[in-house]
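User: Teach me something about this protein's shape.
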Amino acid sequence: MNKQGWYVSYSSHLDELGKLAQGWDSYGSDPPSETAIQNAHGILNILSLISKPPSRIAPLADGGVIIWFNEEGSVECSNNGRITIEARS
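Assistant: First, the predicted structure itself:
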């Protein structure tokens, strides 16, 4: 399967987030957990199937990862495996 360029870029970005050290934000925050990174990769795979690129992916201070979609909402992959979807109308 040929993945879109945005998928490859965001997938690499997720891999880099997985390498962050404790205190990455200078406030002692936890780095994204392996579970959060794996779940975010799974979300990216689904998004690639429907050609829906996110607008941004970033680490969260509690060891999770958030995937934003401009003004449409977000998907939060927490450090304990929970996935939370927020949709805006």
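Now, about its shape. The radius of gyration is 13 Å. The chain has a mean pLDDT of 95. If you'd like, I can walk through any region in more detail.
User: That's plenty for now, thanks!
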